[in-house]
Design goal:
homodimer, alpha/beta, TIM Barrel, 8-stranded parallel beta barrel, two-stranded antiparallel ribbon, 46% helix
Chain lengths: 306, 306
């Protein structure tokens, strides 16, 4: 129930990190792209095929190191429905390899429409009584600007199908404070208010492991707020972007964790996907380079939470 | 530039309304579904084909009455990548028929990722120098919770490619006030603060027609706030959901318009798509029923703005 499956996978691998799969074409070695372009041309389909081949290699190399992957929907939508097909295939392949899959899509809408997004990404679509998984991820990132109506349909699926959501609370980008850091007339910041809403939304789903099905996205680039939120939201599991390429270091993410070193998962996307470029190794060994970086990141973060 | 193309189409048709294309299977007549299921089974592909056939019929019947359509992404994602292919085909077909297409996807993310969403939905994807339209809508709805970083990449495309965005300001759902109506310590509501951000983001893109490329989503279900925002945001074009099935009437949407009766477009989805059910007419005439409802809605709204 809730994030228990994720928490268990983190324990098994002693690794509270998630590999982001945000596959820009620039990140993909030429030999993979050339093979796809030869078959399908320099088209949306060609790009989508190259991305799937790249992802498969990464997943094969990472699946015994990391507990989870986080495909970012934008980098698939960018390649049209063909790219979205690659998203679906990537999710399926990662699940086959035992990984927990978080689709990072930051969906949000009014209740009736959110029901459709919930079914699409973490639930089932009903076609004349046939229940079909459209994308079938384990968890979805969402935006809570619309309030409870936009969260409720997700909770129903979290309870029924053992899934989770991560609500944007304090994001990792430079301008996140423009709205999120503003203070309300009760003296609370907007991000803290959103965080408190996460605790409320999740309260019926807290398990024996201490966390609910409603997690929060809190950026590593704001370690002070990360620490404040960790204390204020004891049942909210954190997804922490911003480590690595965005500037957050291992010390910055340390405040994400509770006193037992649990309660958060740290994302790295570019750092892992582009490790072969940073190492300047043979591009055919991109997946091994990704694995080396994932191991280094794991060890660095585990050492910081002691 | 900006929303000029939309404003022009509204003038030509004397109709400030947009037909929402949120095609639930329940809304589609049996004969269309049966034909698709016979070919493709009760599968994601079967459902996606039925939706495309339904949409084509609607677009054919509506294209000389309404200036624009608004497909809601959730109802396509629900049918997997096959559904997303139907979204792409629907956008293409609507554009061929001269309609302005607003993809209602409420996307949001940090800058680098928002660049990918912008390219996907209103711009071009670069594949080794080839520029390809992935979805190619004219405008996109977005969520501004992340601040300027998440809007800037869209503005670049709005300027370069003559497109527009609609930022969620005050949404139509019952719980929209939970965050949006809260007051900040400067006495402004969150929704008004977001509205002011829209004016700021759009200021370099205001055209001779008076509106910028940065519009706002403001629900018909909150007519008082609609009037307040219309006065406060003189250069922000409004997309107004909530008319019809959600409870907003023609009088409720009247405050959306400026003193010249311009500056807003009113959406109806279920009312138009399900007109055949409400009329209880021959399901084969669903498109004509949709057209009758679109004409009725046009006349009702035009009469209210004088």
């Amino acid at each position: 129930m809730s994030f228990d499956r994720l928490i268990q996978k983190i324990s098994e691998k002693n690794n509270p990190t998630v590999a982001g799969l945000d596959p820009k074409l620039d990140y993909i070695p030429d030999h993979i792209k050339e093979e796809a372009y030869t078959k399908y041309g320099k088209t949306l389909e060609g790009a989508a095929e190259a991305i799937f081949a790249f992802n498969k290699g990464l997943i094969d190399a990472l699946c015994d190191v990391v507990p989870a992957v986080k495909p970012q929907s934008a980098y698939y939508e960018m390649y049209g429905w063909q790219g979205v097909r690659t998203l679906a295939k990537t999710i399926e392949y990662a699940k086959q390899k035992g990984l927990f899959v978080i689709t990072d899509a930051k969906r949000n809408d009014i209740g009736a429409t959110m029901q459709a997004y919930s079914a699409a990404h973490i639930g089932h679509t009903d076609i004349e009584g046939e229940k079909i998984e459209a994308f079938g991820a384990d968890a979805l990132t969402v935006n809570g600007y619309l309030g409870t109506d936009g969260i409720k349909p997700l909770l129903d699926i979290c309870k029924a199908d053992d899934k989770g959501i991560f609500v944007l609370v304090k994001t990792s980008n430079p301008s996140s404070g423009e709205l999120q850091d503003k203070k309300l007339d009760d003296g609370q910041t907007v991000y803290r208010t959103m965080g408190d809403m996460c605790e409320t939304w999740g309260k019926d789903t807290v398990t024996a492991l201490g966390y609910s099905a409603v997690g929060a996205v809190v950026g590593a680039t704001y370690p002070e707020q990360l620490g404040e939120l960790r204390k204020a939201l004891p049942h909210t599991f954190f997804l922490v972007p911003g480590y690595g390429a965005q500037g957050g270091g291992a010390k910055d993410v340390a405040p994400s964790f509770d006193k037992n070193g649990k309660g958060a998962i740290i994302n790295s996307s570019r750092g892992i996907m582009c490790a072969w470029k940073k190492e300047n190794c043979d591009p055919h060994e991109y997946a091994q380079a990704a694995r080396r970086e994932a191991v280094r990141m794991r060890d660095e973060i585990v050492s910081c939470i002691g």
